[in-house]
Amino acid sequence: MSVDLAIVGAGPAGMAAAVEAAEHGLSVVVLDDQPEPGGQIYRGIERAGPGLCTILGDEYEAGRALAEDFRSAGIDYRPNSAVWRLDAGARITYSREGAASTVAAGRVLIATGAMERPVPIPGAERPGVMGAGAAQVLLKASGLVPTGRTVLAGSGPLLLLVGCQLLDAGAEVAAVLETVRGGDYLDAAPALPRALGGWRDLAKGVAMKRRLKRAGVEFRSDVSGLAATGESVRFDGGEIACDLLLLHEGVVPQTHLSRQAGLAHRWHPEQRHWVPIADPLGRTAEETLLVAGDAGGIAGARAAALSGRIAGRLAAGAEPGGLAAALGRERALRPLLDRLFRPHTALPPDEALVCRCESITAGDIRQAVRDGAMGPNQLKAFARAGMGPCQGRMCGLAAAEVIADERGLAAEEVGSFRIRPPIKPVTLGELASMEGEAAEAGAL
User: Fold this and answer.
1) Does the structure show a pLDDT above 60 at 442?
2) Can 2-115+252-337 and 118-249 be said to share one CATH topology?
3) What class does CATH assign to 346-437?
């Protein structure tokens, strides 16, 4: 199969890019691992009723129009497609319905979005502990609302948003434990003048915090030393009983595909994650590869849709026009948020589980470094961290931080796991289903 543009991901960036490219006359295929379009931010939007949309808010409801445009644009949309290889020359290999296939494209847009940053605290693997974003996904996809006392811990706008949404859904939100440090406010101050361009979003954040406080939710600031017991959350100087602990320290780009494809990445010093190197419009050093949305840097749903539209135009050889300036305005708030909501979980204690797939603790990683593991890739041989089904998605950042600290280096100096295809688990049956040239191109 050959198309003008292949898009990986059907979130706001992928959908917007597909619509724009189709309007410019390109043949487009969209491959997404979810059963329906929307990505994480608009998950379940096509099925969401008025009651759920009221709880989730106007910004969630805004995704409905984009999903409708996407469905009506005549695009070759392939849900439940797991992309596991991207080769030079813009050839994609993916699995769907038990069979593997390839797509050759003039250009490929990586619009794989973001994932919630794992928070490796002691007890994080216990029942009753999960990510705040994961709880939001359950609310969006299935209308599930937690029972009992819920405590949210961490930092970032999503922490407050999920707290308000759960409150509106009838959950008992007992407390919000913020890990933001006093010094973070000073560090963020220089970014405030530019951030005023996004004053509406700033006002929303203030309003969410005020609403939670009015509802009687307890707030603690400058929290450190988090640990889950199964019946409570402990922290330096206190303990709060809870049935559910929701952790959140921001979201990070999904970079497995862009790294496997060979794109260069840079270290984000404030948010402590890797970002593919691209210009402000999403063009990379590889002419056939574009990135859009949170896969190219966290900026939110509106910015993702704008960057997707720009990518669709670029793929068609058109100019972005006024979309570039609009994207810049949407990104105005980001430097402030990046400095204010720095992740504060970089160095888990020895007993904290870092690699869940292989049951590797932070202490195991430190011992591996003392035994001679100099970086994440050596760690695979010494302790098997990053060798499980998630292929380092859940442990990669934390493992690198632990190694760097043990060696007295910066995290960017020790690097990251080397990503090789297949980047997702593939069965022998799927490989056997490939034939001829496709099998040779997709061979491991």
Assistant:
1) no
2) yes
3) mainly alpha
Contacts of 402 (CB under 8 A, 6+ apart): 347, 348, 354, 362, 365, 366, 369
Read off the pLDDT band of 88 (50, 70, 90). Answer: confident
The superfamily CATH assigns to domain 2-115+252-337 is: FAD/NAD(P)-binding domain (3.50.50.60)
Q: What angle do CA 341, 345, 350 make, to 5 degrees?
A: 175
Architecture, CATH, for domain 118-249: 3-Layer(bba) Sandwich (3.50)
Phi-psi region of 234 (alpha: psi -120 to 50; beta: other; left: phi over 0): beta
For the four alpha carbons of 345, 347, 352 and 353, in that order, the dihedral sign comes to positive
- Chain length of the chain: 444
Instruction: Express each pLDDT in 121-140 by its tens digit.
Output: 999 999 999 999 999 999 99
State whether the Cα torsion 261-263-267-270 is positive or negative: negative
Kindly give the pairing relationship between strand 251-253 and strand 114-116: antiparallel
Q: What's the confidence (pLDDT) of residue 346?
A: 61
Q: In this structure, what token pair is assigned to residue 379? A: 């760690």
